[in-house]
Amino acid sequence: MESSALPSEFMPVLCQALKAPSLKNVPLHAMEEFSPEDSKRFKPIIDGIHFNMRFILSYQLVLIGLLLVFTVIHWGGRLRAWRRRRRQYSKKGQEQRKSPARSLLEGKGAVAVDIGSLGSSSSSSTLEEDANPRHIALEEEQDEQTPLLLKTQPMKPSTRRRLLASKIKACLTYQPRPIPIINKTLPSNGSSLAIIAFLGLQIFYLFFKTPLTLSMLFVSADRASILFVANLPLLYLFAAKNQPIKVLTGYSYESLNIIHRRLGEIMCLLALLHSVGMMGVWYTLLRYAGITLVHFLLIKMILLGIGAFVAYELIYLTSLGSFRQRWYELFLASHVVLQVVALVLVWFHHPRSRMYVGVALAIFLIDRLAYRMSSKLTTLRASLDIQKDKKTVILHATLPLVTHRNLLRTLFGKQDVTKGWKTTEHIFLTVPSLARKHIIQAHPFTIASPASSAGDQEASLELIIRAQDGFSGDLVRYAKAHDSVAVRLDGPYGSQSAVQMLRDSDHTVIVAGGSGVAVAWPLVWSILETEGSKDPEDGAKTTNKKRVMFVWIVREQSHLSWLGNEKLKELEDRGVVLVIPPPTAACGHPDLERIVGDWIACFDERSKIGVVASGPDGMNRTVRNSCASLIEQGRNVSVEIEKFGW
Length: 646
Known about the structure:
Helix content: 40-55%
Subcellular location: Membrane
GO biological process, one term: iron ion transport
GO cellular component, one term: plasma membrane
Membrane topology: Multi-pass membrane protein
Organism: Lepraria neglecta
Radius of gyration: 30 Å
């Protein structure tokens, strides 16, 4: 056996326990030098450890394969969407060339309609020419010879397949109720299935050909440890703000955050299994060789392992939702410090872990130092505007935009907000002047102002910050005595999946709850900017018939001042269906399912509807499940949830 197969400091202890001579210079197949009894006991352990080392390599190949699958799915979808847009541009261009007058009328044929019957009050609304255009299509198809009672046609196999696909998609879209008592919010069924599949992969690699006997307890503990370190790079990759997964799959770090948390929980369990297993090795083997528990725990390798175990368990405990909500600042600080401490301890704990620890540490340092503290960081002065409710502050800054004129600087130069940002992206805000504790704290906020356009010389950046405990409360109190403050901005970050989904849809619904308008407002303008866009083939302008409904649910009437009447009126002038129900503090929650469902029912079943919601968990769940019901009915609906809570 090679001495590297076991921890070097554990070798003499294990040899003594098995009554075997020193293994320092004994080759793997020289088992004949041991007594028959020792060889019989020792060889399965050696074989099991070597199998673990080989078997874990296939885990990395599986992860690479999964990444390739998601990459193909993402870019295949983008290619199909691009082809669909090209067909739409071509069709609209032909219609305009044939009948320009008709196209002009279609672009101005919307009329104002009162939708008070939807169960909510609204400031205004704009719908297509007819409240239900599909009824018109049915009437045109019928004539006097059409029988009143149509014969029931047998369902075609293709129809059955579509219905089955709709039911499956609806089931995956549905989000269950929170877990009672602990009020734990659950993700959608699709996300849960993905997590369960990932958990199944971990269980497979933990127990495949792992003997579950006391005599082979060391092999089981070794498998848990090697699977733990094999997951380290993946854990840090999911948490990194700057990572290649976003480019390949379209999923940015906030979309992967749920996988990052579940993986962290799995790794804490693996660390616990490894620790319990090693204690079992001491109890079943080493204590009979005269090794006391104190002696065992004071071995350098064991002490380092205990330290790493404690560090990762503390990371888990401080990452719990209840802890984050109460002590968010402590969560941020402890998360960074404990990560570094844990990696250092694992590095010195065992030589076999160093390759994985090195990769994880490189990911962490590149993300933190090369990007977040250099190319993504900018410092500026911003104005502070206290709103009518006295609990909200609007942070505003006008930024001169800088554009790189060569490819090298574009790829490797600074990538901060002075280069502009995209819709739904967010930044991490630091305000050092608030207090000493805020010097190193960075808090995420969605950029609430529309993204800049090509050719703009400057951009207006706005953040809507609601007073909570800690940083946001300190900032609101500071704003009551100061009208400006120096800030550090780290970013921008975020995914464009919601934007792309809405742009690929025929009609869109955007629902915001409270400060979720920071996501919804730029989204609405992003969709409006696509109207009247040019054909990518010949540059001719086309008429976009896309209809947009914007629903904003506020707790208090004063919250409408976050945007102001002028901005809301501008949306109406652009043809947006604007629905603002009465404040929930006075009238309760509106019937979102009816508001969204009745509006979508106005369009042809073949129309592709995109729905985005950003707000509290309860509102997001209502919107998601309303869309699931429509999907089950055969409607072509896609939904994205932009969760603004961290």
